[in-house]
Amino acid sequence: MFAGVVSLGRPAADLADPGALRAALAPYHQPDAVDEWRSDRVVLVQHRRDADSGPQPQAGTVLAFWGRIDNRADLTRALDTTPFATDRALVEAGLRREGPDFLTRLVGDFACAAVDSGSGAVTLVRDQVGVKPLCYRAVDGGFAFATSVAALRTLRGPSPTPDPEWIACRLLGLYLDDPQRTPYREIRRVAPGTLVAWAPDTGVRTRRWHTWRDDSTWAPVREDRWVKDYRTVLDEAVRCRIPADDVIGVENSGGLDSTSILALLGGFVDRPRQQIETFGVVHAEHEPMAILSASAAAGASWNHLLTAGAGLASEESATARALRVLGHPEDHGMAGSFATFYELAAARGVRTLFSGFGGDEATTYHGSLLLTELADRGDVSGLYRNVIGNVATKPARTLKQLVWRRIVRRRHHAALHSAFKECWPWHVLRDDVVAEYDLRRRYFDAARYDAPFRTINGFLVDHLLEQTWIAARVSECTLVAGTWGIEYQWPLWDSRLVQQYLSTPSIEKYGPGSGRDLHRRAVRGTVPDVIVDRCDKGMGANLVRPHAGAPAAASPSVGTLPGPLADIVDRRRVDDSLRRARTGAPIGATSWIGTLEAQTAWLTAS
Question: How far does the signal peptide extend, from start to end residue (predicted)?
Fold first, then answer.
C-alpha cells in the first residue's frame, strides 16, 4: 500500500502530512516495512510485506509498487536481469530501460506509481482486473495518489465533497457505471487496466491499456485440447499465488469454485494438513458436510465453520472498521461481511487467503447462452446434443429451444425483473432525485443481466466484465483484509484465466443442464465427483432465522439525517417502509437500512 503527493511551487509537506498518510494506510496493523521518500516537492510513503526491496534512488524515477507480477519469466528475459530479482526490482529495471510505458507490460495483481523526481510527472497503473485499488486527486498546486480514498482524505486543504449520485445509487443497490468515479466528486479511481499520467503542464491524461479479446472461433464439436489448455492456465493461476512459507487460508463454501481452489492447493503444497486452513460460513443444512468433504479430500485438517451472524471479537463493528479503512462506506459490502474470517484467520497465523470469487463472474458459470448461439445458427443437431432429456423428450425440447431462442428477444432476466419489481415500492428516495439521475430506468436495466445477449462472450465482454461492482468487491476486500496483515488471492479472477475462457469456443462451455461444463471437465479427477456432478448450487433448507423486528430496531439510527442524506431521502418513505417491514418484506426490500446507517456514520464523521 502506498500514498504520495507532488507539489508545485511550495513544499510537499504543505499538501500532506506523511504521518497522517502512514496512519491512513495502516490504521490497525504494523506493516513489515515502511519506506518514506522525500524531496522539496515529493512525499512518498509505502508499506510493504517484504523488507528486502532495497532503498529508493536519490534522483530519477521513484517507484511505489504493491502487488505480484506473474509474467516474470518473460520480463526477465526481455530485460536480461537476474531471475532472483524481487518484483519491485524487476519493475524498476523495466522503468530504467523503457520508461513508464513498461508498466503496461505487467501481468498480475498490482498497483504502481512512478514519479519523476525532477519534473514531478506521475504515472499510475492498475492491474487488468482491479484487484489492487488505486486513486488520485488533482489539487490546487499539486497532485496526490494513494491505494485508498482514506489516505487522500488526510490531505491538507479543502475536504472532498460527497457525491449525491453515488449516495442515491447505493440506497437502491446500484453502482456507478463509470469505474473512475468514487463516493467523492474530487477523488478519482484508476480504472482496471488503465494508465493515468499527470504532469504539471498537461494535467491528467487517461489511457486504457488492457481490453478483453473476443477471439474465440466457432467450433461445432468439442476438442479435448481446450480443456487441457484451460486446466494449464488454471493450475498456474493457483500455483503462482502460493506463498513461500505462510500458512494458507482458503474460503470454503463447499461449492465448485472454492473447492477447486482448495483441491488444487492440496495437490501443490508439500504438507496440506499443516499448511492449509479453511474458513466457511454455514447458512444451509447441507453446507457443513460439503465443506468438510472438500477439505478432507484436499488433506486440509483445520477447518473453521462459522454460523451466520458471527461478529468480530472487538467492540468495533465490521462496518465501522471498513469505513475507517476505505474512507467511505463499502461499495459492495462483502468486505465487512467477511471481517470475522479475517480476524479468525489472522489469529491462526494466516497471512494469505484464497477466494473462489471470480468463477461466477467470468470463468465457470455462463455457458448456457450456447443454446442461443446454436439456435441462431440453426444447428439442430447441436441443440439436440445439449438439451436435457431422453430419446422420447429431446426432439420436442430441441424444437422448443430452436423456436423460442430465435423468436423471443428478452428484455430482462425474468426472475431478477420480478424481484426488482417487488422491491421498487420500498425505496426511500425523493421523487426529484429519482428523476434527476434517471434511477428508475437504471434500476430496472440492472435486471436485464444476460437477457439481451446472443453469445456467451458478448455477454461477458460487453456487459459482465465491465461491471464496476466486481472490482469494488475484490479491491475493498483486499484493503480490509490487509488491515489484519492478510494478502487476498483471487485465482479465478486471474486475467490470463479470464482471457483463456474467452478464447475457448462456446461449444466447450456448456453441457446438458450445466453452464459450468468447461470448468467441471477441467477439474474432474481433482475435485471430488460428488461436487463436480452436483446439478445446481443448492445446499438444502436455509438454517438462518430471519430476525423479526430488525428493521424496527434499526429505526433510531435513521432519526436525524446529515445534510447530504436529507437532500436525497424521503423521510415519509423511510417511516412507511419501516412500518410495513414489521409485518414482513420481500427479500432485499429493506437492504437500504444498513446502507443508510453506514452513510449516516460516514457523513456525520466527514
Answer: none
